[in-house]
Amino acid sequence: MHYATLGTTDLQVSRLGFGGMSLGDDMAADRRLLDEARAGGITLFDTADLYEHGRNEELFGTAFRHCRAQVVLATKVGNQRRPDGQGWDWNPSGAYIRQAAEASLRRLQTDYLDLYQLHGGTLDDPLDEVVEAFERLREQGKIRHYGISSIRPNVIRRYVPGTGLSSVMLQLSLLDQRPLEAVLPHLAAHGVGVLARGALAQGLLVGKPAREYLNQPVGAVQAAAAAVAAVAKRLQRPPAEVAGRFVLDTPGVTATVLGIRTAAQLAEALQLARSAPLPPDVRHELLQAAPANTYQEHR
């Protein structure tokens, strides 16, 4: 397993993070999966209060309460469940962030969060209020660092520079190269860590039937998947490893967070985490097969 420092923080994280969003069908099996992930060297575990109505956090809390200091727990805030349980509303108010943090701490059975992330963000958010809430939680020792999970460059630029933001979680893959245009260089210039999700492009790069993706036509998706398959065959590596290495090898990326639901997916993730970088000519080949796309909104 390889590890890296998240931005300018003191957090050492595994370069492969475990995304818990898909867990929840079988608590016993999920618990075993989390135990095996930690035994395999994964230290970064990402969840959110929104997932499974908080049960995802409860699962993490049960799994890691006996080894809390050995893992980096990241969770998210901002999506407030409606009283009737039917959906949620965006609420980035300082009062709600502080209230939600207390609830996440209880569910995670811990007295501090390593990374607390705003789960989205808009240009209309009360930026000063959001930052004040995070800073107060940090002063109280309830969170160590804070970040945002956003794919919106205009929102990211509101937070970087000028706040104590430590990380940004964004979407990146061979089929979603939008962050390469400006976001990743901007974050790198300001020492902000990057957690990349979506490396497999919802499975489209590793065998799922092609369909339009992020306004890219089916043909473009097929060409990218074919390039991944060809490289995988030539290098004798699994396609998921090739697609994942494209993200891990991208300058500025601290770690990639994969949604893991099965033992087979965990095995693939661990193999990726221990793999060697792609040769530069192979990366160039992949980039040639998948023309860069750019942000059309939220610029």
TrEMBL record:
Pfam families: Aldo_ket_red
NADP-dependent oxidoreductase domain span: 15-281
Organism domain of life: Bacteria
Name of the protein in its database record: Aldo/keto reductase
